[in-house]
Design brief:
Number of helices: 10
Order of helices and strands: HHHHHHHHHH
Largest sheet: none
């Protein structure tokens, strides 16, 4: 990793390989790396780099589900999501790196607690359709401000719209890739792709690819419920240092 100490480089490499191995093997877990990397990389640098990694990884994982993409769902989600992206760009440009890190810490810890609560039977099984527009707006805003977590709000949107399982996976992949491209253009337009962004992306890309390659070949013995509990706990714990840094 460019500009980092050797221990920080080793830490980032381990986080990248582990998180993308989880994504490659289960389809879930990539965004858990964001708060962990934010402990050693400033958010203003990390968010554009993570956007480029999201585009690359989503393009790799998109191929097998492309036939299930629901164009009507995408067309419905784009207007409110685009407004969210504009708000997110303004907030990202306005807030400093420390406040962005604290906000990400609160968001991921809060999500981890909420997900554990849902797994224990708390909350409704499906959100009402009325929350769909709000969820798509938040996906655009939150994904642009923090470079991650948009998939959670897209999942809420499609859960509310009651799409099929095949449409859910394929459409979510298409939305994440599209959002990453759009916000990448936005970061470039407002001058937030710094000189360090592309070297860091180039340094991180081989380890992202390694993680996905390993994930495709890993057969994990941990059960799905236990895996999700572990990820939730990791999110809660990784968010705390960001909030109180």
């Amino acid at each position: 990793m460019t500009g980092l100490s050797p221990p920080a480089e080793i830490y980032c490499i381990a986080v990248l390989i582990a998180s993308y191995a989880l994504r490659g093997s289960t389809g879930f877990g990539g965004f858990a790396a964001m708060p962990l990397l934010a402990l050693v990389i400033p958010m203003k640098t990390l968010v554009p780099v993570w956007t480029l990694l999201t585009i690359s990884s989503s393009a790799m994982l998109f191929g097998k589900d492309r036939q299930h993409v629901s164009l009507p769902v995408i067309l419905k989600i784009l207007p409110s999501c685009s407004l969210g992206i504009l708000l997110g760009l303004w907030l990202f440009k306005t807030l400093d790196a420390d406040w962005l890190a604290r906000g990400l810490g609160a968001l991921v810890s809060g999500y981890g607690l909420h997900a554990l609560w849902r797994m224990r039977g708390g909350g409704p099984g499906h959100p009402p359709r009325a929350v769909a527009a709000a969820a798509s707006f938040l996906a655009g805003a939150v994904g642009t401000v923090f470079g991650t977590m948009a998939s959670l709000f897209f999942a809420v949107y499609m859960d509310a719209m009651r799409v099929t399982k095949a449409q859910f996976r394929g459409t979510l992949s298409a939305l994440m890739m599209t959002l990453a491209v759009v916000r990448g253009i936005g970061y470039l337009a407002v001058g937030e792709f710094g000189r360090e962004s592309l070297p860091l992306f180039a340094a991180a890309l081989p380890f992202m690819l390694t993680g996905i390659f390993l994930g495709d070949r890993i057969h994990t013995g941990i059960s799905e419920p236990m895996f999700r509990r572990v990820v939730c706990v990791v999110l809660i714990l990784s968010g705390l240092p960001l909030m109180f840094r």
